[in-house]
Each structure stands twice: as structure tokens, then as C-alpha cells.
Specification:
Layout (H helix, E strand, L loop, with lengths): L2 H13 L1 H17 L5 H13 L4 H18 L8 H12 L13 E6 L6 H14 L4 E5 L7 H12 L2 E4 L6 H14 L4 E5 L7 H18 L4 E9 L4 H13 L4 E5 L8 H10 L3 E5 L7 E3 L2 H8 L8
Parallel strand pairs: 1-4, 1-5, 2-3, 2-4, 5-6, 6-7
Antiparallel strand pairs: 7-8
Helix pairs in contact: 1-12, 2-3, 3-4, 4-5, 4-11, 5-12, 6-7, 8-9, 10-11
Amino acid sequence: MSEEKIGFFGRLKNGLTKTRDNIVSGIDAVFHGASEIDDDFYEEIEELLIMGDVGVNATNDIMERMKTAVKEKHLKQPSECKALLVESIKEQMRVGDTAYDFEKEQSVIFIIGVNGVGKTTSVGKLAGILKSQGKKVLIAAADTFRAAAGDQLAEWANRAGVDMIGGVDGADPASVIFDAVNAAKARNVDVLICDTAGRLHNKKNLMEELKKMNRIIDREFPNAHRENLIVLDGTTGQNALAQAKEFGEVANLTGIILTKMDGTAKGGIAVAIQSELNVPVKYIGVGEKMDDLQKFDTDQFVNALFDLTEETE
């Protein structure tokens, strides 16, 4: 079947095959192999979730929610618990309506993350999503340290049909932000999306750079809604969590863009990151095309993870 025919859900489901093989088949074996709901039954499920990159904190929360539901419903058979586990994971990952407030206000979005995770393509795709909603979007190419980053971003801006403010390679990123903010005000832009450097010489430099850019926006664009989205590669598991924690030390993270979920994605990490950092996954990417980035849909994600049915697209 062609990629177009498979659709977003199909590609997400394919991308989560590795996680499904690692976790879900084992969980199914526990649900159908255990004779009673006891401590051993719960421990086996816990172990499988942790092995699947769901993380200790998230696993504890999921299990507590599941145990409470088992007691409330007076369930006796392990096989009756699977639906409760699925619902518990969905509850763990729900993204509230306020997560997308930036769509309703004049906003500045910082896109941050290490090089190679799909940061630049995410900027372009997000610009495309917002433009399709009828918003006036401007991109700031403030990753001036990576050679050809500006050219790559210009290509994506062109594909999205939005304007871009850029600086020459090696230029001061803060000066690009200054120019972009003033252009955004002059053109009455709805959303300014800023690509930022994925890596500087050390964490201190990165912190100072982000602080400098933030100070400019605070001064020049004080009423803008602020959003800091970190882009993480869904195939890297615990490394993605480590990156999120590091960037969380230098920026107030408000959301996650999880990319490369069409590869051999470690899907459990989406649950772990959200729980460990209390930062919601807001977008999920499954490919290179413009519409391959979509808002994170909890039900769709968990259904794909557990190979449950989803309406055909």
C-alpha cells in the first residue's frame, strides 16, 4: 500500500511497531496468562511498561489509576483489566484545551532542541499548519551557527508559503530575533516562529543566548503569548528525556514536538516525558511531507500503540 493510502494513523501505527512488539505482546500475555489479579500480576505489567521506556514516574501513576479502577469495578479476572490499562495511559497523556492557547493570541514560538532531531522541518511544518488556519505567520531563522540552516529553513518557509527573516551564517541570533520581532509588529503577524541554535559551545552559552533572545522579546513584544516547544526524536528513547531535562534547565518548556514516529519509534517515551517534566506532547511527526506533523491526539496515539481500531481516514 502506498504511503498516501496508509495515512497518518497508519504511519504512526507502523512507527510504533517496535514498542508494540516489546510491550504490548508481553502485556497481552500477562493479561491472558495470569490466574488472578494479585501483586505478581501488577508487578509484571509494571516491569513491561518500564522496559518500554514509559518511565518509573509515569508507570507508577498509570498503575495507581488502574488499581483504583479495578477496586471500584470489583474486577476479578486479569483479562478484564486491559481496557483499564489503556484508559489509564490515555488519562496520563491527555492534553488540555489550554495547550493551544497560542493559536488564539498574537504569539511568539521558540523551537528548541539539539541538531538532527527534525527542528528545522518542524518549524516549516508548524508554519504550514498555522497558515492553513488562516493565520499570518513569520519565521525567524535564528539558528545562525549551523551552516546552511538558513537555506534549509528558507526552503521550508517557501513550501509553507510564509515569509522569513534570516541572518547570515554566524550572525548574532539575538539581532535576527530583534529584526524579526519588529517585522512581526510592522506586518501585524499572528505568529512569529523562531528557529534557535541546537548546540553552542557549552550549556552556559546556550543559556545566555536564549536569555538574550527572551529579553529582546520581553522588551519589544511584551504582550505576545510565549511558547517554547522542544523537538525530540521519537526513536531515541531515554536520550530524548535527557535532552528535554537539559533544555528544561535553560528554558521554560511549554510543549513537545515528537518527531520520526514513522521509524522504529520508542513510543513509551512520549508517556515518560510528559509525566517526568509535566510538559505535554503537542505535536507528533511521522514523515517529511508538510502534513506529516499533526496535533497530538491521545486516543489516536494509544490506539496505535495497542493496535486498536481507528476510523479509516
